[in-house]
Each structure stands twice: as C-alpha cells, then as structure tokens.
Amino acid sequence: MASKFFSTLESVIKTDGAALVKKINGVYQFDIDGTSYSVDLKNGNGSFKVGKHEKPECTITIKEEDFIQILEGKLTEQTAFMKKKLALKGNMALAMKFKHIVEAVKKASKGAAPAASSGASSGASLDDGTPLGKVFDTLQKTVIAKPELVGQIKGVYQFDITTPSGVKKFTVDLKNGKGSVTTGAAPKADCTITMAEADFLDLMSGKLNGQVAFTKGKLKIKGNMGLAMKLGKITQAKPQAKL
C-alpha cells in the first residue's frame, strides 16, 4: 500500500535525508485517495508528514492502485500522465525526479526485508495535527502495545471518514501478523465503516454509542456485521486521545 511506501520513505529521510535533499532539492505533496503526504526534500535534512504541505512545489494526484503500479514498475510516470491517471501541479522537473525517491525506498526495503517479516506494526506516525490523525495515531500505538487484539478481533477494517476536505481512508488490520494501522484503503477489507468525522470522533471518545450511531444512520457498514459489533473492543482498548 501507499502508506507502507511512505513509512519506509520516512525512515530513509531520517537516515539519509541529506543525500536525498542534495539530489532532489524540492518539496512534494502526494494526494492519494483522499489522503495527503508531504515530502520536503529541500530544507534541512528533509522531512515527512501525513497531511498537506503549506507550500508544495510539486503536487502529484493519483489513485492508490495506479501509484502502486508505478512503484512496482508496471506503469511509468509518463504513461500515467498521458492516460490522465496522474495529475501534476507545479514543477514538472521535480516530478521527473520522483524515480530517485522510488529507488531509495526500494533499496531500503530490500535491506529491511527480514525485520519486516515479523509483522510488527511500526509505521510512520499518523498524527498530522488534526483530531482525526491523533485518534488513529493513538490507535496505532495501542495495536503495537496490545497485539492480542488480533486474536480478539480477527478482521480487517477500513474506515472511510468524511471530512471538510474530502473522504479520508484508514486501514486497521487486526487479522494479520501483529496488527497494523495505516492510512489509505485496505487491499481487502472485511468490514468498511463510513462515518462523518465529527460522529467518528464522538464514537472513539465514548460520547456516541456504536449501535445508536448505526440506528440514527450516522454509521454505515459494508461487509462483516460481526466485526462491526466488535468495534467496542477497539474503542475500549484505545486510550483516550486528546481531541
């Protein structure tokens, strides 16, 4: 998924950011299926965050499935652009340098392959400064601290949260390995939960009951209803986030 790519990229920036800054010298914003990723490879030793950048020099908008095809070498950036699968805004030259970022991430992924096989949830921080980001970041930390949730839930959730800036998707995998929480759509969700941001925040803080939300049409479910009934285990296990 795109989230795994950016998680690895964040690690690359922390260890070898200066070299990438020298090679790229630019600021990117990637808008993928309602989620924005900011990659600053111009200032200092580089930085990464989930969320929009104040002054991106190159904004790339693309669907996650097409983005993954580019990463896997099945689709070139030029072909994606010509077929209107990739939209560019800003510095075209920076878009051409994206291949250097992909190469750096692939190199790092090969070196980290043995550690990745453990299935640990050690992705990039999901806290982008918004209440929604803080909730999922706290949930991510809870899953890392409580791998037993996988045995209790045994399912993959996708949360489609409607915000003023569009629909933001998050995946909570409590079925594979030790579990994980990432941004973006799940490759194969067992249960998809759709809610407005305000209602979701109330649900996670305990102000709104899941069954009441469903009855009032504030919570929509697609897929395994049994997993939806287990949402309480997640909200109860999650420490209260500061909203």
TrEMBL record:
Residue ranges of domain SCP2 in the record: 15-102, 138-234
InterPro entries hit by this protein: SCP2_sterol-bd_dom, SCP2_sterol-bd_dom_sf
Pfam families, per the entry: SCP2 (PF02036)
GO CC aspect terms: cytosol
Record's protein name: SCP2 domain-containing protein
Organism: Dictyostelium purpureum (Slime mold)
